[in-house]
Amino acid sequence: MIRLQEIKMLQTLHQSLSQSIPQAMKVYGSIFNIIRGNPFNLEVLVDSWPDYQTVITRPQKQEMMDDKDYYINSYHIFSKDFEKLPEILGSNSVINWKQSLTIQGCQNGLNEKIRDAVASKAIQMDYSKRFLYITNNAMKSNISKASKHEASTTENVKFRSTNDNFKPSLLDISHAELVNNNWKFGQNERSLRYIQRCLQNFPGFCLVDPEGKPISWILMEQTNEWRMGYTLPEYQNRGIAKQMMSAFMQYLQKSDIPFFTHVEEMNEYAHKLAKAIGFHFADCGWHEWKCTPAELL
Ligand SMILES: CC(C)(COP(=O)(O)OP(=O)(O)OC[C@H]1O[C@@H](n2cnc3c(N)ncnc32)[C@H](O)[C@@H]1OP(=O)(O)O)[C@@H](O)C(=O)NCCC(=O)NCCS
């Protein structure tokens, strides 16, 4: 695999990947952030250039220092040639199989190929297929125009709350613990550090109660995917998430920032919510492989 570093090449790749949306969604979102300052220190690998077939984004080596950190040790993949994938993915120079890690992609055929890649390795793999949600103009990103996340201003979160007791606000690092404690896939020290980093680098919205405590929130991660959306149980089913997330969507669209999200099959309310605010689901699905080497189990 070739490591693409030159900004012009990354821009060319990003532009080209827009033709493969939604399947290329995860790498497209990662490269968007790499071009805009690369806050998670990711790198881009392609099998050949300029006629690439496979693209992988992953953290740079110095980021993957903790062998048990699934949140940071994450790889995103898109391929137009599944035949060569087992060989590419099986290589330790592409994926560090000695670590616990996650691979994510939005293509139905990936599962079989990733299984082939790990078949001869002592690795426990948990596969999860979920619903990918996108909007019609989710890809209307313009990197040169896209505004930087302006954490210091509340101008971007002005929307009318249907209940005057609740005020829209921006999430910041002080909210990381609250988000982590309520994130089904978090609730540990590593996920807390990951959330803190997301909050420092990407936008997050919330609605706060009169004491200033968030009651509903949503944030973004390094591939521009919405994650960790939550409304405190006592405030659920009052239209709060719908209102707050619609405002988040408008903010991102106005700022030319691409976005998408995913929902687990059985999460009925989250499916309703996604559809109510203008997302529609994409057939290619959202896929994740959580891999743990036998010696780390
Ligand atoms: C999903 C979640 C964020 C929704 O928050 P919320 O503030 O209750 O959402 P809203 O009140 O705006 O409702 C959104 C939709 O879900 C429906 N809904 C929410 N709670 C419901 C309930 N208890 N019973 C029936 N419908 C419900 C609403 O009717 C609405 O659908 P509609 O537009 O078709 O009427 C919330 O249930 C939650 O925090 N769940 C746990 C975490 C989670 O699953 N996060 C999403 C990860 S993708």
Helix and strand element order: EHHEEEHEHEEHHEEEHEHE
Instruction: Please tell me the CATH architecture of the largest domain by its name.
Output: 3-Layer(aba) Sandwich
The description of the largest β-sheet is: 8 strands, mixed
Termini separation comes to: 29 Å
Return the structural class. Answer: alpha+beta
Shape: globular
CATH superfamily of the largest domain: Gcn5-related N-acetyltransferase (GNAT)
Approximately how much helix is present in the residues? 25-40%
CATH class of the largest domain: Alpha Beta
Number of strands: 12
Biggest sheet, strands in spatial order?
Answer: 1-2-3-4-5-12-6-11
Bound molecules: coenzyme A
The total domain count is 2
Describe the structure.
- By secondary structure, the protein is α+β, with helices and mostly antiparallel strands.
- It folds into 2 domains: 2-137 and 287-296, Gcn5-related N-acetyltransferase (GNAT) (Aminopeptidase); 155-255, Gcn5-related N-acetyltransferase (GNAT) (Aminopeptidase, 3-Layer(aba) Sandwich).
- The protein contains 8 helices and 12 strands.
- The protein has helices at residues 7-17, 25-35, 85-90, 110-118, 176-181, 189-201, 240-254, 268-276, and strands at 2-4, 42-46, 54-59, 74-79, 101-105, 123-134, 167-170, 204-208, 214-220, 226-231, 261-263, 280-293.
- The strands form 2 sheets. Strands 1-2-3-4-5-12-6-11 form an 8-stranded mixed beta sheet, sandwiched between helices. The chain has a 4-stranded antiparallel beta sheet with strand order 7-8-9-10, with helices on one face.
- It is globular, with a radius of gyration of 19 Å.
- The mean pLDDT is 93.
- The structure holds coenzyme A.
- Coenzyme A binds at residues 216, 229-231, 236-242, 263, 267, 269-270, 272-273, 276.
